[in-house]
Every structure is written in C-alpha cells, then in structure tokens.
C-alpha cells in the first residue's frame, strides 16, 4: 500500500505542467500588481522569445530534417536566408539614416531662412515625422537577429542530433549490441548514412548468427565424435568379453557334449556326471549373459525406478567385491527418464572404476537436493590418482570419464572429479532443476 507521501509525489508528478503554469501565472500577477502595467511588454517579449526557442529546437529542426534536400543545399539556403535578413536590416538602417539626414538638412536650411520656425520643426519631427523606416528600425533589427539565430540553431540541431544518435549506435555496435536501429528522420545524406548503419548492423547480426550456428554445429560434431568413440569402446569391450570369455567357454561345452555323446552308451554314470557339470557351467554362462545385458540396458530402472535400481546395483557390488558401501538415496524429486538413466550410468561407471582400479575398502554413494540442483556424489577411500592436465578436459581423460562428462552435459549438468594419490576419489554431478521434476518438498511447502 502507498503511504501519504508517495501519493502526494505521484500527484505532483502527474500534474507538473499545470502546477508550473499556475506558478508562472501567480508570478506574473504579482509583478503586474507591484510594478504596474508598464512591465507587460517585457512579459510579451519573454513569451515571444520562449515560443521562438521552442520552435527553433522542436518543430523547425524536424521540418528541416524531412526536407528532401542535400545538406549542402540546406546550409546554402540557411546562409542565404540569414544573408537576406542582414540585407533587409541594412536597407532599413540606410533608409532611416537617409531620412534623418534629409530632415536635418531641411531644418538647417530653415534655420538660415527663418530661425523662428526651427524649434517647431524639431518638435514636429520628434512627435510625428519619424518616417516608416526609422520607426521600424529597432524592431526589424531585433526580430531579424532572433530569426537568424533561430534558423541557425534549428539547422545545427537537424545535423548534430542525427550525428549524435549515429555515434551512440556505432558505440553499441562496437560493443556487440546489434539489436537497436538508428532512428533518424533525415531525408538527406545523414538519413542515407543511418540506413547504411542499420543495413550493416543487420548484416553483422546475420553473420554473427551464422558464426554461432557454425560453432554450435562444430561443438555438436565434436560431441558426436566423442560419444561415438565411447560407444565404440563399449562395443569393443563387449566384443572382447564375448570373444575371450563366452565364445571359448561355449566351444568347450560343445566339445564336452560331443564327448559325452560318445560315452553315454559305454558309461551312463560318467555321462550323467559330465552332463551335470555342463549344466552348472551353462548356468554360470547364463548369469554372465544376464550381466552383459544388464550393462547394455538396465531394465531395473524401468521396473524398480532409479532408487530401486541403484540399491540393486549397490547390493550386487557389495556381493561381488565385499567393499563396504554407504548410501543415501533419500531425494524427493521424480526425475525424467533421461536424467534417471544418466544418474544410473554415472554411478555404475564409478563403481566399475572403484572395483577395477581404486583398491578401496569403502564407497559412499549419495543423491540429494542441493538448492535448485540435484547432486550426485560417489566417494571412495582408494589409492586415488593424479587428475589429467591439459588445455582441454576431454583430451587427456579416459573413455570412462569422457562418457560420464558427456552424459552429464546431455542433461545440462556439470561433472567434476577431485582426486590425488593416496587420498581417494570424489566424483560429483550437479544437474539443474527441470520443470518435469515434481518435488514433494516444494509441493508441501506451497
């Protein structure tokens, strides 16, 4: 709510013009009351000067700007106009001086012929015989001076103001702001220059957009290349596991089945024992195939949700490695599918790195809300490593880190890795809040 002083300030601001006129009227009335009517011509002159000033700085420069004439012709016309006024004032002054000289010469001749008529002739000249040029000389001189001054000011404003606007526009263009046009109403060389500046700004904006589009395309090509390399590395790993592990094992099972086929008639008991061993071996290979499928696409995320899939992943990690695992998965957001699979893959890659390289005894996995971001943290107490150094982060990183960083950037997040030899490793991701997420804590707060 507005207080009383605010309301008064708004009222004064809305009626500022009327208040100013009222104050001027009161001042004029007071001067007329104390100084008498003789001061009225002064106010008339001041009013005329103010009106002429407003015309010379407002409508007249706009009129000059809209004339379809070259600047040189406008300046030449202004000079001619002011020269004509000077010539008019000169003619009036010359005529007035000739009139005075003629009258004084007549009075001088009259003094020689009839001295008694000299004084009445001087009085008559003073009262009634001034002549039209002599009486108009002060007014014409003053008005001509003010008119010439007004035309000069208007002509200067019609040239200086567009140049000032174009200077500001050039400063904006130099600073990179190409959105605003130069608003100039001149129909002369200045207008053409303003149009050229606007055209140049539009062309620069188009080139800037094309450059940005090219940079985005280049960055997209690099990202696609990195993702493709990561995919190829994953395919190479799967191919190696199939070729070095599952392929030879299945070939060995085929050979054992062939041998079992030959001994089934000779020694059925030995054949049953062999078949049981083959069955157990096949069960282990089926489990390996399930693990491989799970690595390709974690169906548990679709079936159990992210929290359930991560808990299953951690239980499996503890069962396979025996490493102590601490987890905090009590976040409140319902994430979109892309964010869920990204978080799962990053945690999976981190646990895989811990299992293969860290030589750790404890791993901590934490997912929580940090202000407006979702924070994913995986920390271990392993041997750590020296982070890669170089101008580009992705040039010296392994495929695993590149894959995690690309996944984080795909959902608008930021991945950071903190590690040093002997002090473990900390991998954290900050994923910004999205409108698709539904936070139960924010809903309850609203």
What does this structure look like?
With 446 residues, this protein is α+β, with helices and mostly antiparallel strands. Among the domains are: 36-174; 322-446, Histidine kinase-like ATPase, C-terminal domain (Heat Shock Protein 90). The chain is 72% helix and 9% strand. It has helices at residues 4-14, 16-35, 40-57, 59-66, 71-113, 118-127, 132-174, 189-263, 268-296, 299-321, 337-358, 399-410, 440-445; strands at residues 324-328, 333-334, 362-370, 373-380, 414-419, 425-432, 438-439. Strands 1-3-4-6-5 form a five-stranded mixed β-sheet. Strands 2-7 form a two-stranded antiparallel ribbon. α5 packs antiparallel against α7, α8 packs antiparallel against α9 (268-296) and α11 packs antiparallel against α12 (399-410). The two termini are 25 Å apart. Mean pLDDT is 76; it is low at 390-396 and 438-446.
Give the CA-CA distance, first to last residue: 25 Å
Rg, Cα atoms, Å: 48 Å
- Main sheet characteristics: 5 strands, mixed
The helix-and-strand class reads alpha+beta
Number of strands: 7
Number of helices: 13
Strand content: 5-15%
Q: What form results from the Cα inertia axes?
A: rod-shaped
Oligomer: single chain
Order of helices and strands: HHHHHHHHHHEEHEEHEEEH
**Low-confidence region ranges:** 390-396, 438-446
Percent range for helical residues?
A: over 70%
Order the strands across the largest sheet as they lie in space: 1-3-4-6-5
What does the average pLDDT come to? 76
